[in-house]
Write a structure and sequence with these properties.
This protein has 319 residues and is mostly beta strands. Helix content is 0%, strand content 47%. Strand 2 and strand 3 form a beta hairpin.
């Protein structure tokens, strides 16, 4: 099942990774499930599946427990259809009337679990100008275009996720007239550039970012992997964004450099899962490997205060 330019989403209700479509010399419309130990082809008949495509986007709607899929590049051109996967079947949810995002591929989707809306930004439509700069929200029934006072530049193939700890969507990088490494946040009202330190990921596109929620061992963070740099060289570096600060993670046995892969964060097993992508010879050389990444970074050291000191005996007790 090797493929590039695929998309994946993690379903925490069923503890499954859902992969749909991609490119392996032809556009695909198969549906696969990874349960942590094996792949299962759960593809419905072609007439009950989204049409074959690649460079589409998916995210998981945790309110309605469905995977949301939008757009991509199909056999007849770019698409602007909306589909949902409920763990058993695909349903075409494209509105029959009213507003709908225009055709595009290489867009970005993220589910805002505070406002319970899927957020869409940008993508590639072709023509002049080739890229889009629009923001849309999907509530499960209706698409609504949002016109914020400020937005990232028109671009495609960026990484985007919902940073639950900060209650905002985070967008990184992508391609407008060149590859970028800027970070933007969206709070439901406006986009804002994140103040950048000197230590930020290099420029790239066709990478992916995911969110890891904090627990007793790890802080909440956005994780970033791979992509293509300004010389169209594949990358395999891993970065984390904690609050507003990027830092690079030192990783052993990293996957081969690549772009255009599926990447999710499994919140039950606390691991990042990567599948497929493009690497090696040729930008569309399809890969079929799967990798997991677990990294518990140390939490910041606690700061002692007067109230932290237990004066019974000689021990110090920390909250």
């Amino acid at each position: 099942m090797a493929r590039s330019h695929t998309s994946a989403a993690y379903d925490p209700q069923r503890n499954e990774v859902v992969v749909f479509g991609g490119f392996n010399g032809a556009r695909l419309n198969d549906t696969w499930i990874w349960n942590g130990s094996a792949w299962t082809d759960v593809s419905p008949p072609p007439e009950l599946s989204p049409p074959a495509r690649f460079r589409h986007s998916m995210t998981f709607d945790s309110l309605r427990n469905v995977v949301v899929l939008f757009g991509g590049s199909g056999n007849t051109g770019r698409l602007n259809d909306t589909w949902e996967w409920d763990g058993r079947a695909w349903t075409n949810r494209t509105p029959e009337s009213g507003a709908n995002p225009p055709i595009r591929d290489s867009t970005a989707l993220a589910f805002d679990s505070v406002r319970n809306l899927t957020v869409l930004f940008g993508g590639f439509k072709g023509g002049t100008p080739a890229n889009l700069q629009d923001t849309w929200e999907w509530d499960g029934e209706v698409w609504t275009e949002i016109v914020p006072p400020e937005s990232p530049s028109a671009r495609n193939s960026m990484g985007m996720t919902f940073q639950e700890s900060e209650q905002r969507v985070v967008l990184f990088g992508g391609f407008d007239t060149e590859r970028r490494n800027d970070t933007w946040t969206y709070d439901g009202n406006n986009w804002a550039p994140l103040d950048q330190s000197m230590n930020i990921p290099p420029v790239r596109n066709y990478h992916t970012v995911v969110f890891e929620k904090s627990d007793q061992q790890t802080p909440s963070r956005v994780l970033l992997f791979g992509g293509l740099n300004s010389g169209s060289i594949y990358l395999n570096d891993t970065w984390q964004l904690i609050a507003d600060e990027w830092s690079r993670l030192s990783t052993a046995n990293a996957p081969l450099p690549r772009c255009c892969f599926g990447l999710v964060f499994n919140s039950l097993q606390k691991q990042m899962i990567l599948f497929g992508g493009a690497g090696g010879a040729g930008k569309l050389a399809a890969l079929g490997d799967l990798h997991t990444f677990i990294d518990p970074p140390p939490l910041p050291s606690p700061t002692l205060s007067y109230s932290d000191v237990d004066r019974v005996g000689n021990e110090i007790a920390l909250d």
